[in-house]
Amino acid sequence: MLGDQLKLNLQNLKVGDLVMQNDKYATRYKTYGVIVDVDLDSFEVVQVHWLNYGTFWTMCDKIVKVNKNEKV
């Protein structure tokens, strides 16, 4: 668990970032989304607007930030 927490802090997730689900938690409904809010108290939860699905609070370990260098 500690390794996951350290990895989460390195993502530097912020409002406006494009994210996708972590392969381990992937579903066909929540493929790509945009972060619309960050829980500043814990930094473990972000609010993501999932395209064609809706806006939900999501744990940071369930998403991956999409970099411009990654193939989408």
Draw up the topology in text:
Blueprint: H1 2-10, E1 18-21, E2 32-38, E3 45-50, E4 54-59, E5 63-65
Antiparallel strand pairs: 1-2, 1-5, 2-3, 3-4
Polypeptide structure, described:
A hairpin with a 3-residue loop joins strand 3 and strand 4. With 72 residues, this protein is mainly β. Residues 1-10 have low confidence and may be disordered. The protein contains one helix and five strands. It starts with a helix and ends in a 7-residue tail after the last strand. A five-stranded antiparallel β-sheet has the order 4-3-2-1-5, with no helix packed on it. The protein has one domain (2-65): SH3 type barrels, CATH 2.30.30.
- Structural class estimated from helices and strands: mainly beta
CATH class: Mainly Beta
Q: Cα-atom Rg, whole angstroms?
A: 11 Å
Sequence of secondary-structure elements: HEEEEE
* CATH topology group: SH3 type barrels
Count of the domains: 1
